[in-house]
């Protein structure tokens, strides 16, 4: 890849002994704690990390923060805004270098057509209308087109 970049930019000529795929394979082979694997979708990893213990710890921490902030009885002041990107996932068979024993998680798009969606909801149940952003359109133009209740 680096050789292709250098050749495309014609910045300088690469030496014949420039690191190649064999060099990377040897580097990985000399490190017993590293391996090359096929990447796993990020959604799968998130689902496997949501163990009952992790969820219980999160809820306990959240309750203590809400108690300290005096927000337990004020649900209208608690909002959750979440933004997510929507894009084609491609084939998902990328090979990546990662530590042994850990999954290789990669999320990427093969093209530049991405859409971001933002939604907000309060703990009392009030929701605002969702907003979307598209690649290539300025935020101000999109904002004018939004319909907010």
Automatic annotation (TrEMBL):
Protein known as: Uncharacterized protein
Organism placement in taxonomy: Eukaryota, Sar, Stramenopiles, Oomycota, Peronosporomycetes
């Amino acid at each position: 890849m680096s050789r292709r970049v250098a050749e495309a930019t014609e910045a300088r000529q690469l030496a014949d002994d420039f690191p190649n795929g064999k060099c990377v394979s040897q580097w990985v082979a000399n490190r017993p704690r590293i391996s090359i694997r096929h990447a796993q979708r990020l959604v799968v990893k998130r689902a496997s990390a949501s163990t009952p213990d992790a969820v219980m710890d999160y809820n306990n921490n959240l309750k203590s923060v809400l108690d300290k902030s005096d927000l337990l009885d004020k649900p209208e002041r608690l909002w959750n805004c979440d933004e997510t990107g929507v894009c084609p996932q491609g084939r998902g068979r990328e090979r990546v270098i990662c530590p042994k024993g850990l999954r290789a998680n990669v999320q990427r798009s093969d093209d530049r057509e991405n859409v971001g969606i933002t939604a907000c909801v309060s703990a009392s149940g009030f929701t605002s209308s969702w907003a979307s952003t598209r690649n290539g359109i300025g935020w101000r133009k999109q904002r004018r087109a939004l319909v907010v209740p």
